[in-house]
Specification:
Shape: elongated
Helix content: over 70%
Mean pLDDT: 91
Number of strands: 0
Order of helices and strands: HHHHHHHHH
Strand content: under 5%
Length: 202
C-alpha cells in the first residue's frame, strides 16, 4: 500500500509541475510519464485519463491546505488572531505546494464539462464543494472577529473572498529561490497576511 501511494504521489507531483508550466491543455500523458521516467502505461495503471490526474491534483492540493489551516479556525485568541494564523498557514502552504495550487487555480477553463464522464462531473462538483466549505470557514472566523470587536464591521462574505483571492494571487508572482528556508517562507507568508488583514483592522 505504501509503495502504491508513493508511486501515485510521484505521478501527481510531476503532473502538478507540468500543469503549472505548460497548462492543462498542452500537457500530455507522455509528458507526465517522461517526467517520472516511466511508460504511459504505468501512468494509466493509476489513473484512467489526464482529467482524472487533474482531479487528483486538485484533491491533493485542497487536502494539504485544509490539513494546515482547519485546526487554526478553532484555535485560541480573537477572531483576528485566528484569521491571521489561518491566512499565514494558507499563504505558506501555497508557496510550499505552488504547483498544486497553481493547477487548482487554472481550473478547467476550456474543458466542456458536458464531455466529462458522470463520475468525473461528480468528483469535480465534490471538489468545488470542498473549496466552498473552505471559504465558509474563513467567512465564519471573519464574522466572529467582527462580533468580538477585533475586526472592523464589514460584509463577512466580501471580506473572506477578498482575503482568499488576494492570498491565492500569490501564485502569480511568487518564485521560490534555491535554498529558501522554511523560516523565510513563513516570514514572507506572515508579511503577506499582515498586509491583507490590516485592511480589516479597526
Amino acid at each position: 500500500m505504501a509503495a502504491h501511494d508513493a508511486a501515485r504521489t510521484m505521478i501527481l507531483d510531476a503532473a502538478a509541475d507540468i500543469f503549472q508550466r505548460q497548462g492543462f491543455t498542452r500537457t500530455t500523458i507522455d509528458d507526465i510519464a517522461d517526467a517520472i521516467g516511466a511508460t504511459k502505461g504505468r501512468v494509466y495503471y493509476y489513473f484512467r485519463s489526464k482529467f482524472d490526474i487533474f482531479l487528483a491534483v486538485y484533491e491533493h492540493g485542497m487536502r494539504k491546505v485544509r490539513e494546515a489551516v482547519e485546526p487554526l479556525a478553532a484555535g485560541p485568541g480573537t477572531g483576528r488572531d485566528r484569521l491571521m494564523a489561518m491566512a499565514v498557514a494558507h499563504a505558506e502552504n501555497l508557496m510550499v505546494n505552488l504547483p498544486y495550487h497553481n493547477t487548482i487555480h487554472q481550473g478547467v477553463h476550456g474543458q466542456a464539462t458536458a464531455a466529462l464522464k458522470a463520475r468525473q462531473r461528480e468528483m469535480l462538483a465534490e471538489l468545488n464543494g470542498i473549496r466552498e466549505d473552505y471559504e465558509l470557514m474563513f467567512r465564519r472566523v471573519v464574522a466572529e472577529g467582527m462580533a468580538d470587536g477585533s475586526l472592523r464591521t464589514e460584509d463577512p462574505k466580501l471580506a473572506a473572498r477578498v482575503l482568499l483571492s488576494s492570498l491565492n494571487a500569490t501564485d502569480m508572482w511568487f518564485q521560490p529561490r534555491p535554498g529558501q528556508t522554511t523560516a523565510e517562507l513563513h516570514d514572507l507568508a506572515a508579511r503577506i497576511a499582515d498586509l491583507l488583514i490590516g485592511g480589516l483592522d479597526r
